[in-house]
Here is the input.
Amino acid sequence: MAPDNAQAPKIRCPNRTAPDPDSARRCLTLLTNWRTGTLATAIAMAGLLPVAMAWHDRYLITIAASIILAAVLATGITVARRRRLATMALSPELVALADLAGERRRLQSARTRRALAAGLRRTADANQPPSRLDPCPLLIDRVQTVRAELLALANSLEQTQTPDPASVAQLRELLTNGTSPLYNPNLPAHDLHTTLAHARAGITNPTQHMTCQEAP
Here is the structure.
C-alpha cells in the first residue's frame, strides 16, 4: 500500500510564522560546535595512535574505533548542518545570518543555476525517461499544465546573474523534495502554481521581489 502523504510538509512561502533568526543562529552555532568537537576528538585520538601501537593491541583497537566513531559523527553533523542551511535559505527572513552567506552565494552561482535549469527542462519534457535520481514519479498531469512556466523559469535562471537566493532554493526543493506538489498527489495542484509564481517573481525581478510577509 502506498504511504499516506496527506500530512507531508508543503513547500510554501512561510507567510504564517516567520522564522526566528536568533533560534536559527543558535541552531547553527550548536551544530558548528559539535562538528568542531568531534573533529578535535578525531585529531586527538589520531595523535595517540602511535603511542597505542607501542603499548598493546587492545589500546590500538580502542583508539582506532574512537577515531572512526568521531569521524562518522563529524560527517553526519556536517551533512545535517548543510541540510539546515539549505532549508534556512528558503526564508528571506534569515537573509542577515552570516552563516547563510556561503549558501546564498552557491545558490546564485552559474553552476547551480545551470543545474536547476537543466532539471526544470528535464521535468518539463514529457518524453524524457525517468532518472534513477528522481525522488519519486512525477505527476505528469500537473507537469503538463505548467510546462511553459518550467521552461520559462529555466531560461530566466540562465540569464539572471543574481536571482533571489530564496527563490532558487525554493525551486531546488520543488525538484528534489519527494513531498513537493510535483510528486505528492495529496497536495493540491494550486500549491505548484503558487510555488512557481513565488520563484518566478524572485528570479525575473530579484530587486523588486515582494517578501513572503508582504504577500497576500
About this structure: Residues 1-17, 209-216 have pLDDT under 50 and may be disordered. The chain has eight helices and no strands. The two ends are 38 Å apart (CA to CA). The chain has two domains: 21-88, 104-208.
